Amino acid sequence: MAFPITYATYSASTGLVTTSAGLATTFTGLVLTNPINSPVQLQLTSVTILPVVAQTAALQVGLSLGFNGTTAVTQTTPITPASNLVLGPQQPGKGLAASAATLPTATILGPLITELETGAITTVPVAGIVYPVNIVISPGGYVATYTSAASVASSLAFSFTWQEG
Length: 165
Known about the structure:
Layout: E1 8-13, E2 26-33, E3 42-51, E4 59-67, E5 74-79, E6 82-83, E7 96-102, E8 108-116, E9 129-137, E10 141-147, E11 156-164
Antiparallel strand pairs: 1-6, 1-11, 2-7, 2-10, 3-9, 3-11, 4-8, 4-10, 5-7
């Protein structure tokens, strides 16, 4: 069930990144964290994957899920989330995003979204893949992008949209 419209909505996007392989705790891609002492739940509502360079090996792409109630995620390369409130003042959210992080606990595999194939650059999808999700992240929880192997250097961009309430 989606939060009512009175809840704040945010998004965060990476530039072009090289993803880490599998469920690594030293992570690159996009991670959304709900801090341990956060007063809100985060509801991840969509994930966008934008492949811009052909991969040298086929990659499964999805999400991984993690939780640690005592040790925070280290945001190595933080990303400033943007409020999706078009009218009115921009209110900072509680969710934290990063394109590189050290995760305190290994994640588990969540939903798989797509597979990226190898081939000439002309075979890479032109448009991003927008995937609707409904994942609630409690304080201490985190959701990260997942690729089955490391991606080609600077070949993928990701975006998350979430609500807080």
